[in-house]
Amino acid sequence: MKKKPILVLVSVLLISTGIFTSCDKENKTTQSDLVESNIKAVLDSVIYNTHVPGIVAGIWAPDLGIDMIYTSGVANLETNEPMSKDFIFRIGSNTKTMTITVLLQLVDEGLINLNDKLSYYLPDFPRGDEVTIEMMANMRSGIYNYSQSEAFCNELVENPTRLRTTDELIEIAAENPYYFDPGTDFHYSNSNTVIIGKIIEMVSGGSLESNINSRVIKPLNLVNTAFLIGGTELPGEHPSGYYNGEYTEYSPDYSEFFDISWANAAGAAYSDLSELKTYVHALTSGYFLSDTLQQHRLDCIDFGDPKGRRYGMGLMQYKDFYGHDGVLPGFTSLMINSPERNCTIVIWYNSQINISTPTDLLYIIPKIIYPDL
Fold first, then answer.
1. Are 180 and 144 in contact (CB under 8 A)?
2. For position 29, what pLDDT does the model report?
3. From the CA atom positions of the chain, what is the Rg in Å?
4. Which of 123, 175, 200, 334 is the Cys-Cys partner for 358 at CB 3.0 to 4.6 Å?
5. Can you give the pTM of this predicted structure?
6. What is the C-alpha end-to-end distance of the chain, expressed in Å?
7. How many CB atoms lie within 10 A of CB 311?
8. Is the pLDDT of residue 316 over 90?
9. pLDDT interval class at 21 (50, 70, 90)
10. Are 85 and 68 in contact (CB under 8 A)?
């Protein structure tokens, strides 16, 4: 039986971390040990107090002597196989950062302008003359999110292994009304990134897969990371993935349940803990872009999040941490890096339970490391 929430434990840990920091600032080894111990306690409490089967987490803050990889829970509920730091997993919307990185590289190369209108590329898309590339990149276009369509979701469940095309997904967005007038508000929509993926292919003359591979994956020598265009297979050694939004007493294994084409440019990639560490550090440090465009990308907007998150072009910001999160049936994840603090955090669960995701730890783990955050 799962027990009480982790909030009380977290409060105690934050207080203890703060006391220790004020009492012993010089003993970095002991301080880092305490921080790591407190982080492990929080991660274990997620397993103990929720229905999350397993967690893999990496926290690296070398300036504070913190270098930890921790696993908790199980990879398979039937066999109780333990989680492994070497598993690959579906990274969901962290994929958006790759798609938008390719887009911005094309901007740097003068092939696309952020002020270009959608109508220039897709003349038949409704109100396309009101939508700019930048509005789609920072989720201010108002374009309908195809994955919020009830008809789409029902069909996805009924035919989980069917290949879905980019044009099919864009058509769903085009057939539905805008959430608001373009540029006047914020709404997170997978359709924005899928449309951008199509524009990348139109401009570059190559597939989105080949662009992500040549521009993002190969330069970083990532060998356990890939963007998938379709199929149910999750290559390599991986855990079972459980639940599709809500906890149920029985859940199928979602790791290879749906044809991943449904997620497209917005969520079809996979990776592992070590390679996401490498990637998110490069992403936030400006490795891929010119200094001017990187700074513009990091200039995130306030979208009214009560916890203080902001959103930019394919990037989420919290305090001085930048990165993204990912949610798919069976998998949820968070990758963030603070260039200012030289700190990287990557956490993933082999479950999608909306009330308990790695994003919840965005407001907890950094605070344990930096009590003054």
1. no
2. 55
3. 20
4. 334
5. 0.92
6. 34
7. 19
8. yes
9. very low
10. no
